[in-house]
Automatic annotation (TrEMBL), chains A, B:
Residues binding Mg(2+): D276, K296, T300
Presence of the UniProt keyword Hydrolase in the record: yes
PANTHER family the UniProt entry points to: FUMARYLACETOACETASE (PTHR43069)
EC number: 3.7.1.2
Name this polypeptide is given: Fumarylacetoacetase
Pathway note: Amino-acid degradation; L-phenylalanine degradation; acetoacetate and fumarate from L-phenylalanine: step 6/6
Keyword Membrane among UniProt keywords: no
Cofactor(s) needed for function: Mg(2+); Ca(2+)
Lineage: Eukaryota, Sar, Stramenopiles, Ochrophyta, Bacillariophyta
Organism field: Chaetoceros debilis
Length: 374, 374
């Protein structure tokens, strides 16, 4: 057993909402602040709310959006025809197919409902949830570590049809290229010209914490000579990578219609942490010439709360590269070539270890190809 | 515009059902004979049946299974709890998640309803559809070329989450290897030891006949030197392959549980023709080291009717290889290493051509890795 703990810290770098406070009790240091408003899918086993539904979270309080919508609190949102239909579903897919304006309106509406009446911001607080204690009792679920009575089960936030894993860290690609080839030609010629990627198996995407079974497969007998063949057995080189994934929302693109770089930012709903689990020994034998397959099929884990691009907007920053060199071809040029200042770290804890050991840290701004280009 | 016409002919090689005839009028030479009973999803634009539903077909008659199930004709099937629910859906996914016995029972039930009372077989005909003219009027749709009033729209038969494209023709892999490397080492060492495959993009799978838009992408400037970079533009080397695809049904495999070779045949629901559209020039520049991506993302087309493994059983035969050499590792050994005797051919017709030109013919038995091993 390996416990894998990835963490995403967003460091406050100024926001027009930063003076907001909520009337809901919460720890000020929580990542789930009132200007975060993540989206996820929860169920509450053993209660009458056992069916998964859409939720958000503030501090240690998970807030059931289906209950709020049944109470009519989202009826003011334009173009979200039936909020109850949308939020009582067991995935966020329906919500995510709405245009970005609807995502933004829902987020602001949740903030209006949760903000203190004395908050310094120009926002107009709405008292309908604050003054309705029975509604709070139904919709709020305390997940603080002290409250062991309440079980909240986090589910996969969306039904994922296709998923693509891009190879967007220049340093990572250079390291791998150095190992497999030589340092002078570490990057393949295509790498700096397009975001190289492959499709993964969406049926093996699980929420973080899912117990991953060590895969079996064909392991090359002689590490330097594939022609000596392979044996079947459990992977001995199991590995996971620290990645950040994003969900594409909006109306599906009609077949044959290209999405321009300008319009791509309207379509990115939000981000999660991702661990791409890999069996490196299985990968070594199988991957020529069609890419990784069984070595990556057994598990991909993502964090359950989607942090929206609206919430991340205030952490927007230049990438570590500032400019791309060579300049990408026109269709891939991002006039607003930027990323987000999000510290990332990854730690592991083996079965016999007392505490997790941090094995790597980075920042989302260190990726060469940004989400829009991917 | 290129019209692509793939065809699958199943040559009669003996069957216990071969003496069956139907009371429904049909051309004896039709591929949709009474022992075929394919499954598909149709809609009938401009009628009150405009919503897609599950169908089968006999000769030129498309038969609406949702209407038959509403009339109670499938109530005798065990373990298909609600046939109306199953067949009124807009995909076959629900039906396909049932066990193989249910697929077989539904098929035999349809044959009982359609078989002539004078048929020579031991099957007991059921007169309930034959004697109910109003039900026939609702459920039957004549799609013969003479009847231009009836429009039947064929839809994608299933909602496809993951799809994998295997590289299972030894001759094809040898040809490609000879072109890219040298004839003496045409096959990579892994090729004869495992079915090499990659995931495709399921959102670009369409029913045959869908108009495919020529994709744009990065084309390598110097064909022999990738380091000279690429230009963006429409693919000039658009290509499609003649392939056969199959649908995996049954209860989803729990994560971490392996499907044995013995159990794999219970899970293969049926086969369709497939064209894997490829932009070879885009593929050339992009595919190192993670495999094909944008070059295969724009379209994959499949035929609308799924021919079940039950219907194909009588065409079962040895593969062209008879045995696999080297012997696969134990987990991949198929004691019943076999295929189906299905003639395959592919023709194209350019916009200025008067008739299609056959460009290739083969037989499903020529694949080295069979469906169970894939």
């Amino acid at each position: 057993k390996i416990y894998n703990m990835s963490k995403m810290n967003v460091s406050e770098t100024g926001s027009d909402l930063k003076c907001l406070t909520s009337w809901v009790e919460m720890d000020e240091s929580s990542d789930f602040s009132i200007d975060n408003i993540p989206f996820g899918v929860c169920s509450f086993p053993g209660t009458t709310n056992a069916r998964p539904r859409c939720c958000t979270r503030l501090g240690d309080t998970v807030i059931d959006l289906s209950t709020l919508s049944e109470a009519g609190l989202f009826d003011v949102i334009d173009h979200l025809d039936s909020p109850t239909y949308t939020f009582s579903r067991d995935t966020l897919n329906n919500f995510m197919t709405h245009p970005k304006q609807v995502w933004a309106d829902v987020r602001m509406r949740i903030i209006e409902l949760l903000v203190s009446p004395t908050s310094c911001n120009a926002l107009t607080p709405d008292a309908r949830l604050r003054t309705n204690l029975p509604l709070q009792k139904t919709a709020f679920h305390d997940v603080s570590s002290e409250n062991e009575n309440i079980q909240v089960q986090m589910n996969l936030p969306a039904s994922i049809q296709d998923y693509t894993d891009f190879y967007s860290s220049r340093e990572h690609a250079t390291n791998v290229g150095t190992m497999f080839r030589d340092p002078a030609n570490a990057l393949n010629p295509n790498w700096t010209r397009l975001p190289v990627g492959y499709h993964g198996r969406s049926s093996s995407i699980f929420v973080s914490g899912h117990e991953v079974t060590r895969p079996c497969g064909q392991l090359q007998i002689n590490p330097t000579d594939a022609s000596e063949g392979s044996n079947y057995g459990p992977s001995r080189l199991l590995d996971f990578e620290l990645e950040v994934a994003f969900f594409v929302g909006g109306k599906p693109n009609p077949h044959g219609e290209r999405l321009t770089m300008e319009r791509s930012s309207e379509r990115i709903f939000g981000f999660v942490l991702m661990n791409d689990w890999s069996a490196r020994d299985i990968q070594k034998f199988e991957y020529v010439p069609l890419g990784p397959f069984g070595s990556k099929n057994f598990a991909t884990t993502i964090s359950p709360w989607i942090i929206t691009t609206m919430a991340l907007e205030k952490y927007k920053c230049a990438t570590s590269y500032e400019i791309q060199e060579p300049i990408p071809l026109e269709y891939l040029q991002d006039k607003d070539y930027s990323s987000y200042d999000i510290e990332l770290e990854i730690a592991i804890m083996g079965e016999n270890m007392k505490e997790p050991v941090k094995v790597s840290k980075s920042n989302l701004r260190n990726l060469y190809w940004n989400a829009k280009q991917q």
